[in-house]
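Hi V.,

Quick status before I head out on leave. The structure for the redesign project is tokenized and pasted below; the design run finished overnight.
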């Protein structure tokens, strides 16, 4: 009875957790005992279900190629890469400019492409930096190939 009482006092919002609370209440109402066991068994069943669902998605629904997409960047083709970038950046904030930003992202990743001494192609994503210019529009963004320093004026003579 104690677990049902504790669960009833919690403000649960997660759908799976709500199921556990309802299950504990039903067990307590019907039998007056066994709520802890019922909650533990149900939680383990939910854990198993989640594990199996993730396994199914990974085996049947996911395209394995995209797990290491940046290593196979050149093989996808620019249109596919732009579509991947648009999906990754889908947001209400840039929805109208998704083509603009997706193309910029693809160009930026292609700009940092390197081949190591073993002939392996690498894309050091940490080599891409964003500099924010306050007071500018997002549409004023551009890709600068090279190195940019975000600095202010050193002296008034620099006007």
């Amino acid at each position: 009875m104690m677990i049902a009482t504790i669960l009833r006092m919690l403000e649960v919002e997660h759908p799976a957790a709500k199921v556990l609370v309802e299950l504990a209440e039903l067990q307590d109402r019907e039998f007056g005992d066994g709520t802890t066991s019922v909650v533990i068994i149900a939680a383990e069943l939910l854990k198993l279900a989640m594990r199996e669902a993730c396994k199914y998605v990974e085996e049947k629904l996911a395209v394995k190629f995209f797990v290491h997409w940046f290593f196979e960047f050149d093989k996808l083709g620019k249109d596919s890469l732009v579509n991947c970038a648009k999906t990754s950046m889908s947001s209400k904030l840039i929805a109208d400019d998704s083509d603009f930003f997706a193309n910029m992202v693809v160009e930026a990743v292609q700009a940092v492409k390197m081949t190591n001494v073993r002939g392996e192609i690498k894309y050091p994503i940490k080599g891409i930096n964003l500099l924010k210019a306050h007071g500018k529009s997002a549409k004023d963004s551009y890709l600068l190939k090279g190195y940019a320093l975000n600095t202010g004026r050193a002296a008034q003579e620099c006007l």
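Above is the designed sequence. The chain has six helices and two strands.

G. will cover questions while I'm gone.

Best,
W.
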